[in-house]
């Protein structure tokens, strides 16, 4: 490559645009990203708007219309309840969409919380090493040794399970993994020559950590964290199922599944609906995440 | 007919063409390569990077995979075509045809002792040999490649070996199956010159002792000429010339070869010399008795590695100062001290009268505007995923200089000054060549307008042409901005071209500090002579390696022997050298050396 003319103009004009813009553009160009974006937007819009616009109360019972199947799915279906009703005649579509609100709220904020806490602790431990590393990592080990469910049962069983407390408990239980991964990545990066280069330029530790290392190691972790949104939504359902989640009659996925369990034989749609929505949300998020990651890798060329 | 041919030629390559399949269709890598190799012959293949040397080596070793593809030709080994008969070729690989690469650390299994690997290899090739015979043979070969205490070293792991020893172990690994052909691909590239010289000498001896033919792939013409009976020059996938070394250098037949020879920098002859700035009297950086030791954990508890020991020198403003030495001599440790990345255990580093080693963290950050470092690795030294413009503006942001628009203008100005197109502002460095990356590194260092630039092996990853271009750039920048340069390097020819004063380091000490001409024509230390004798050059050598250097490698910096550190390898060492350490004393005319052989040298320090 030495024969390349150094002062020659770059081949593509496209290079003049910012790197982040190019990544988004390239991701947006892929079909998967668009499908994911459309599905997710529709779902979120429906979850936010439909319960209000339709004017149906998700907790309003109608015993006469109980256990109506979804449309085309059995005898007695009606367009009034596109996804059917549960054992108390509550509309499943509204309940599932309201449940999705809670699930998304809890899933996303828990993941963000544990990613931030884990990344910060890992960053400090990996960058400074030594005693700071020892203290932070023993703390992480201690946290890691307590199973998430037991921690949740203990805390939520004692205090009243509210949404903030659920987020806090799940976030608390999830961060150690991120701290570990972050620490080892930062330790490896820290030894590289460009970090030394930044030190020679006069950059402070703070600057190296937050403007040089964090933007570099956080995105790959965030792509992994997308998968954890799913895990956390499922955990919320598990807590709801155990009666430790948001309390009924508020419809969360956990509560709906817990209700529908008893009717699984003759009204399968109650327990299934949350799952269908989970699959839709997670698939669309994953599609977007994967194409973003691909675009990043393509543009950074594996660097 | 084939049988008679195989007696005179071991390997015969006919019209070999290899392409690399890519998105834009196949790209020709090798085209119509043809040559013969006789038993016991050493043939060098040289060419610049991208000429197809390594692809040739790997094709012969039956080690090519997609996207590479052989499109035409024959490789006849003892009369049979390796390309036509893949099973036969695979059977030969590692047995009759051995391959040694340039990365010994990567080729040895770190979880097995060296001896176990050698025995395993041998028994895989010769299942009939007994374990004890295999071990005996491995040890005999380890001795043949002069690994000291071979029987003990047999049981050691690769990480306990030095780079030179690992390379020797790899040669043993290749030779243990008694191959008829050894393909040595850039084996001296990562080694120090004095060690590389020993490996080359060793290779020649092995060649006559074991009657192995050697195909020696190499990118340095002087090394190739030293090593071989014949030299084949490769350019853009074609053989342009094949000659004996003497004829090749005296009367090259092809324009490419002549250009290659003309481009070689010289050590002693008057070539197209660069302007060496005249030293002023004002020191910009003074190093006074600087020492640094690192603690390591060895087998017997903690040990101190004496990385830098009592180093003294002055760097004058506007000057080009060189620090040369082989790996492990303490250059890099010294660089970390000079740039304030680490603080010395003792001594002072005065930069414009201020002690860098004792400055507060805040003051050090301010001082950094004035002295900058350009790092060695063109790939690792740039922050990944930052666009070029952002990389250049980072130093300005760190020191809070200018607003957004001013920083942008400054970055673009510096880019054009070092020869990078300002249109690359938003590009990532991913697409840049090594040379362009080093330009970017230089641009980043000079954007703060420092007065001193420390170049840590900045050019060592670049080929000759690119080095020349960057040296021109340094010269121009120096004329415009009045920079002072410190070049830290292992490359004597580069230092010879650009530096006016040079310090030679050995095992943490500056053993000689002298003006350029004095150092090369009248060196005051035996180690300097040894370095000069081992430097790859086509010139008539002023010093012969045999006279200047004893067999062996430098002692460990953990338990240094008393007296002069070089005594164990010095042919002229006498009793006093082994008990007392000579001090760095003047030999007159600004030249200093630390050797008892110099007449004025009487004082000592321990």
Automatic annotation (TrEMBL), chain A:
Localization of this protein: Cell membrane
Domain ABC transmembrane type-1: 100-289
Membrane-protein topology: Multi-pass membrane protein
One biological process term in Gene Ontology: peptide transport
Protein's UniProt keywords contain Metal-binding: no
CDD domains reported for this sequence: TM_PBP2
InterPro entries: BP-dependent_transpt_permease, MetI-like, MetI-like_sf
Keywords, ordered alphabetically: Cell membrane, Membrane, Peptide transport, Protein transport, Transmembrane, Transmembrane helix, Transport
Transmembrane segments: 27-50, 102-128, 135-156, 162-182, 267-288
Pfam families referenced in this protein's UniProt entry, alphabetically: BPD_transp_1
Record-linked PROSITE patterns: ABC_TM1 (PS50928)
GO cellular component term of the entry, any: plasma membrane
PANTHER family assigned to the protein according to its UniProt record, in alphabetical order: D,D-DIPEPTIDE TRANSPORT SYSTEM PERMEASE PROTEIN DDPC-RELATED, OLIGOPEPTIDE TRANSPORT SYSTEM PERMEASE PROTEIN APPC
Family label: Belongs to the binding-protein-dependent transport system permease family.
Protein name: Peptide/nickel transport system permease protein
Species name: Paracoccus laeviglucosivorans
Phylogenetic lineage: Bacteria, Pseudomonadati, Pseudomonadota, Alphaproteobacteria, Rhodobacterales
From TrEMBL, chain B:
Pfam family membership, one: oligo_HPY
BP GO terms, sorted: peptide transport; proteolysis; transmembrane transport
InterPro entries named in the record: AAA+_ATPase (IPR003593), ABC_transp_ATP-bind (IPR050319), ABC_transporter-like_ATP-bd (IPR003439), ABC_transporter-like_CS (IPR017871), Oligopep_ABC_C (IPR013563), P-loop_NTPase (IPR027417), Peptidase_A2_cat (IPR001995)
SUPFAM superfamilies for the chain: P-loop containing nucleoside triphosphate hydrolases
Gene Ontology MF term list: aspartic-type endopeptidase activity; ATP binding; ATP hydrolysis activity
Membrane topology designation: Peripheral membrane protein
Domain ABC transporter: from-to ranges: 13-261, 285-532
GO cellular component: plasma membrane
Keywords: ATP-binding, Nucleotide-binding, Transport
Matching SMART domains: AAA (SM00382)
Superkingdom as given in the UniProt entry: Bacteria
Main localisation: membrane
Peptidase A2 domain residues: 1-82
Subcellular location: Cell inner membrane
Family (UniProt): Belongs to the ABC transporter superfamily.
Protein name: Peptide/nickel transport system ATP-binding protein
Record organism: Paracoccus laeviglucosivorans
């Amino acid at each position: 490559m030495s024969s390349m003319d150094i002062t020659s103009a770059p081949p593509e004009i496209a290079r003049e645009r910012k790197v982040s813009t190019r990544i988004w553009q390239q991701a947006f160009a892929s079909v998967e990203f668009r499908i994911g974006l459309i599905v997710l937007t529709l779902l979120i819009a429906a979850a936010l708007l439909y319960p209000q616009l339709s004017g149906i109360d998700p907790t309003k019972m109608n015993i006469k219309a109980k256990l109506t199947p979804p449309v085309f799915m059995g005898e007695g279906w009606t367009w009034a309840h596109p996804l059917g009703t549960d054992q108390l005649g509550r509309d499943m579509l509204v309940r599932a969409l309201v449940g999705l609100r809670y699930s998304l709220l809890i899933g996303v904020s828990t993941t963000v919380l544990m990613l931030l806490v884990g990344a910060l602790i890992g960053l400090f431990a990996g960058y400074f090493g030594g005693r700071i590393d020892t203290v932070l990592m023993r703390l992480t080990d201690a946290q890691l040794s307590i199973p998430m469910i037991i921690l949740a049962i203990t805390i939520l069983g004692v205090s009243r399970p509210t949404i903030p407390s659920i987020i806090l408990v799940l976030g608390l239980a999830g961060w150690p993994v991120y701290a570990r991964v972050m620490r080892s990545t930062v330790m490896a990066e820290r030894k590289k020559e460009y970090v030394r280069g930044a030190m020679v330029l006069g950059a402070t530790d703070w600057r190296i950590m937050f403007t040089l290392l964090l933007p570099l190691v956080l995105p790959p972790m965030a792509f992994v964290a997308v998968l954890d949104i799913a895990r956390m939504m499922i955990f919320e359902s598990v807590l709801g199922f155990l009666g430790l989640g948001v309390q009924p009659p508020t419809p969360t996925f956990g509560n709906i599944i817990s209700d529908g369990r008893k009717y699984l034989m003759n009204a399968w749609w109650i327990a299934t609906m949350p799952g269908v929505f989970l699959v839709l949300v997670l698939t669309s998020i994953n599609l977007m995440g994967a194409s973003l990651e691909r675009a990043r890798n393509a543009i950074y060329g594996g660097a | 007919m084939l049988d008679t041919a195989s007696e005179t030629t071991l390997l015969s390559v006919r019209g070999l063409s290899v392409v690399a399949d890519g998105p834009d269709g196949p790209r020709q890598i090798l085209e119509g390569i043809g040559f013969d190799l006789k038993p016991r012959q050493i043939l060098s293949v040289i060419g610049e990077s991208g000429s197809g040397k390594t692809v040739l080596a790997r094709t012969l070793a039956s080690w090519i995979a997609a996207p590479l593809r052989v499109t035409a030709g024959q490789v006849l080994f003892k009369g049979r075509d390796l390309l036509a008969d893949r099973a036969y070729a695979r059977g030969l690989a590692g047995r009759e045809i051995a391959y040694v690469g340039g990365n010994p650390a990567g080729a040895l299994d770190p979880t097995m002792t060296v001896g176990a690997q050698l025995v395993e290899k041998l028994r895989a090739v010769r299942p009939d040999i007994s374990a004890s015979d295999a071990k005996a043979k491995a040890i005999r070969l380890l001795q043949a490649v002069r690994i000291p205490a071979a029987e003990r070293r047999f049981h050691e792991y690769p990480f306990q070996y030095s780079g030179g020893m690992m390379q020797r172990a790899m040669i043993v690994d290749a030779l243990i199956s008694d191959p008829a052909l050894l393909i040595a691909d850039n084996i001296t590239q990562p080694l120090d010159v004095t060690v590389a010289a020993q490996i080359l000498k060793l290779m020649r001896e092995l060649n006559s002792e074991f009657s192995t033919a050697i195909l020696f792939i190499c990118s340095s013409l002087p090394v190739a000429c030293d090593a071989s009976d014949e030299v084949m020059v490769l350019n853009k996938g074609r053989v342009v010339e094949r000659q004996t070394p003497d004829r090749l250098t005296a009367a090259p037949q092809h324009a490419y070869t002549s250009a290659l020879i003309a481009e070689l920098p010289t050590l002693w002859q008057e070539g197209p010399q660069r302007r060496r700035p005249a030293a002023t009297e004002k020191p910009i950086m003074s190093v006074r008795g600087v020492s640094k030791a690192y603690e390591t954990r060895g087998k017997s508890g903690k040990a101190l590695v004496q990385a830098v020991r009592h180093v003294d020198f002055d760097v004058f403003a506007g000057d080009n100062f060189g620090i040369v030495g082989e790996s492990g001599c303490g250059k890099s440790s010294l660089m970390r001290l000079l740039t304030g990345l680490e603080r010395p255990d003792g001594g002072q580093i005065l930069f414009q009268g201020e002690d860098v080693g004792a400055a507060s963290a805040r003051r050090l950050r301010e001082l950094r505007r004035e002295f900058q470092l350009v790092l060695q690795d063109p790939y690792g030294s740039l922050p990944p995923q930052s666009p070029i413009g952002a990389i250049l503006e980072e130093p300005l942001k760190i020191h809070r200089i200018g607003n957004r628009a001013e920083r942008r203008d400054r970055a673009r100005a510096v880019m054009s000054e070092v020869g990078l197109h300002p249109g690359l502002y938003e590009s990532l460095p991913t697409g840049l060549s090594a040379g362009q990356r080093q330009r970017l590194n230089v641009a980043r260092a000079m954007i703060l307008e420092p007065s001193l630039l420390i170049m840590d092996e900045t050019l060592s990853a670049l080929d000759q042409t690119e080095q020349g271009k960057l040296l021109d750039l340094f010269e121009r920048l120096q004329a415009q901005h009045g920079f002072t340069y410190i070049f830290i390097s292992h490359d004597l020819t580069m230092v010879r071209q650009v530096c006016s004063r040079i310090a030679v380091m050995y095992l943490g000490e500056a053993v000689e500090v002298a003006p350029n001409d004095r150092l090369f024509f009248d060196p005051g230390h035996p180690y300097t002579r040894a370095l000069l004798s081992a430097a790859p050059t086509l010139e008539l050598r002023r010093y012969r390696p045999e006279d200047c250097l004893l067999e062996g490698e430098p002692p460990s910096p953990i338990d240094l022997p008393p007296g002069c550190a070089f005594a164990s390898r010095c042919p002229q060492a006498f009793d006093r050298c082994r008990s007392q350490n000579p001090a760095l004393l003047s030999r007159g005319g600004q030249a200093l050396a630390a050797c008892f052989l110099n007449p004025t040298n009487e004082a000592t320090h321990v």
